[in-house]
Amino acid sequence: MAQGLGSGSSARAVLALVLLCVLLHGEVAESKVYTVGDRGGWTFNSGRWSSGKRFRAGDVLLFKYGRGAHNVVAVNAAGYRSCSASRGARTYSSGNDRVTLARGANYFICTVPGHCGAGMKMQINAV
Fold first, then answer.
1. Can you give the pLDDT at residue 47?
2. Which superkingdom is the protein from (predicted)?
């Protein structure tokens, strides 16, 4: 009888482990891909695009723009406020850039002269 209880406990443990793996995988599968600016793409005043949207860590922002016309630079809060990127800041310039959001505040600017000051900057908060 004790042997039967042991194998039942093992089966329950395996089932619990499988369910845990499914739940963890489900969390990853729920990540969304957002095209910044929708059909308009990454352009001036794109920062308003994020209003009313709820972003999660792991979601992906797709920045679409004419290659050579703009870029996307991940900056900190100070860089966002001053429209400047520190040395070594991650810069994207393909025109079809995928950026995965980290938990908390994520800041992006365009460093083409005059673009950030004209509104090509965005702050995204990911929970």
1. 83
2. Eukaryota
